[in-house]
Write the structure tokens for this entry.
Amino acid sequence: MPRSMLRDWLLLGPGLTWLALFLVVPCGIVFVHAFFERGIYGGIDYIFTLENFGRAIDPLYLSIFLNSAKIAGLATVIALLLGYPAAYAIARAPAHRQTAYLVLVMLPFWSNYLIRTYAWIVLLNREGLINKALTSLDLVGEPLSLLYNEFAIVTGLVYNYLPFVVLAIYASISRLNPEVLEASEDLGATSLRTFLRVTLPLTLPGVAAGAVFVFVLSIGNFITPDLLGGGRLQMVGNIIYDQFLTARDWPFGATLSFILIGIMMALLFTQALLVRRAQGEGGPAHV
Amino acid sequence: MSRSVTPTGLWLAAHLRLVYLFLYLPIAVLMALSFNRAGLPTVWSGFSVEWYGALLENKAILNAATNTLIVALVSTLLATLLGALLAIGVEYRRRGPALEAILFAPMIIPDIVLAIALLSFFTLLEFTLGLHSIILSHVVFNIAFVCAVVRTRLRQFDWAVFEASVDLGASEATTFRRVILPMIFPGVLAGALLAFTLSVDEFIIAFFTAGAGQSSTTLPMQIYSMIRFGVTPEINAMATVVMLVSFTLVLAAQRINRGAVTG
């Protein structure tokens, strides 16, 4: 049907062409650059090499990857622990208020990331509100060093990505069939047991979606470690930045990006598997 | 629900309040300090709006704000057109894992990776960098967001209406103009507002694709250098203005198309 093909092309063509040109091709270039040598003056010499990958797993860079994963993992766990009960509370609220509660959670998420991060510099510095409160209550003798360390980075990441975690988990909880929960309690399970054996497993897709999102955006983050880590604690995102703007070793920066994308795709794939499995098992619970 | 009077319910409600406190306290403190006379980020020394006045006299900030408006307006217009068409195409006909992946990728890819990818691409083509390259780059993630909002809207759409229109003799073009377009318009408008907000706030991709020189500095780039290389008193005032603009746009998007902000 040439007519409908023409229509499809008119609808899909422009957008897909744009994404192919400015997303797929640039990412392809990064993948290819990862296998070339760095030029003497900072450019790229088109000589095939696997040396960049060897360098990426040398202890110096490997430890940065592991440290980034640790920070991202910590942020993910804390965001889930804070986000799950918050999502649960919203899902239990009267139906007509739930949207307003969710919008209130998401509003900061849609605003300027730099400013949201900067707000924590204001709060956490030695003379900031938190230290002022702690010292005036005599809880600490002298101001704590809350800024420019891993604590600050994790706090910033949790702060910035918590809204999305709440949203993803809420979506899962609100799709639960209340009859399944009632059945569990009618059969004599305690609330805790119902939660652990029924609610939590059935809302795992939301938890997985939230977790993957926080982890992926945290491990590749640049702004938060840069501003709240004070540039001393480096994460993968900062190293990539340095390779492109300071060290001018583009092929190595490309290799690090390549690995980051690999980690991201592996996580998304795992998440998709989890969701598929949960959908297969939880059949009746998903209306 | 009646269950909320249980101890668990009370505990959950208290937790939710603390989460809101966690989310809004930093922003509230920042906004309060923007009215601080001393301009110091901590010690309160009286109410003043002088830093808002200083903003209006700061040439670098005004220039950056103008650049940001240009980038956001043009990239939003392009992305809204392409994203809305894409959404109709995807929902109406073609769906597949590859298509879903390419529409999802711009939302989840770390922005530093997209930034260096675009820089590598433009450099390879020996493309001169400037506001236009920021615009080309911002359209990438904006397409994905507009498309997502419009698709959500389209899923509430009963395609039988579309078929009825065609059965009654309207051409596809007429059906598109008279049936589909009015139906998805709130979604398109909400998507455009969100895209505009994202573009106004985006830093890293703009930073990498702006090229050297001050002429194509955007507002987030200006904010970054103010935070990174010496906090000046105007920053709290500027942050307050930028946050309020974002909040207004996002709330407007939500009002026009319920669910735009919360997926």
Summary: Chain A touches chain B through 86 residues (CB under 8 Å). Strands of chain A lie at 36-38, 44-48.
